[in-house]
Amino acid sequence: MAALPVNLDMDVLRTFVTGIDLGSFAKAANRLGRSPSAISLQMRKLEDQVGQPLLRRNGRGLALTEPGEMLLGYARRLLDLNDAAVSAVAAPGLSGGVRLGLPQDFTETGLPTVLARFARLHPAVRVEAHVERDLVLRAEVEAGRLDLALVWDATGAATEGRLVTHLPLVWIGPRAGAGFAAHPPLPTPLPRPLPLALFGPPCLFRHAAIGALDAAGILWRVAFSSPGLAGLWAAVSAGLGVTLRTPHGLPPTLRSLDPDEAGLPPLPGLVLRLVRGAGGGDPAVDRLAELLCDTLTDATRMIALRP
Fold it and tell me: Measured between alpha carbons, how far is 304 from 22 in angstroms, rounded to an integer?
């Protein structure tokens, strides 16, 4: 008699994928509302089902084994198919268009993941992405030309829209070996102005950088100005100056600078919010908003897990 096929549990697969994506099964427990012991039982059940060890010790953390790496790819596809099936039944015929606005910080890291998954779940919905600065995005939402927009909240006191996540502000410079060294404590009585690479005004990040330096009594000069984030990253990588941004989507050629080591002032945090146009109530807009918030919350949580 042929052996019965093994049916993998979707909840267990979701735990597995979430734990790997967050870099910690303790974080997965919080995210999924389960106890750490329940998560451990799920992982043991999954290993028993496939008959292979999926995780191995790697220093203080865990890493995937070769079978674990293989299963991870299948798990993602199974979960996508599961979610697509549920979405097709729960929201049949979802169609129309969504006009989404977002800052440049998320065009390469958050947006492709969100749009690819959204397209698989809702192929009949058209998404128009508008990449602009914060002030422009807010104006476009107010004018009814955008349905959704990710905007920055510098004070953290705003009540508009939905809070997506908190992010730190960091000074950013090239990795070791690049032309520009982390700026040392400034000498006196003839201090050398700190070269900066910034967006042109008006810009929330430019305002924060200049304000922090002025408050600390540090001289500065704008050595490079660019309207685009790619130009800014290239200038900092080339050693033309330091910049200020969140660490989300930081290219491998750059690093966050330790303020004490670099002689730079400490910085506050920043809040990312999702605001909506006045229309509201559109199922396609609702679905994209949920997917966007979930994806970016998970992606930015990974920043907090990095050493």
Answer: 10
Round the average pLDDT of the chain to a whole number and report it: 82
Identify the structural domains of the chain with CATH numbers, from first to last.
Answer: 1-71 (1.10.10.10), 97-167+271-305 (3.40.190.10), 170-267 (3.40.190.10)
C-alpha distances (whole Å) from 247 to each of 95, 114, 269, 270, 303 are 35, 19, 11, 11, 7
Which tens digit of pLDDT belongs to each residue from 117-167? 888 888 888 889 898 888 889 899 988 899 999 999 877 666 678 888 888
- Helix then strand then coil, in percent of the chain rounded to 5, is 45, 20, 35
Q: How many CA atoms lie within 13 A of 105 on its CB side?
A: 21
Kindly give the residue spans of alpha helices, DSSP state H, lying in the chain: 10-22, 25-32, 36-50, 66-90, 111-121, 134-142, 204-215, 229-237, 259-262, 283-305
What is the model's pTM? 0.68
Which amino acid is residue 297, in one-letter code? T
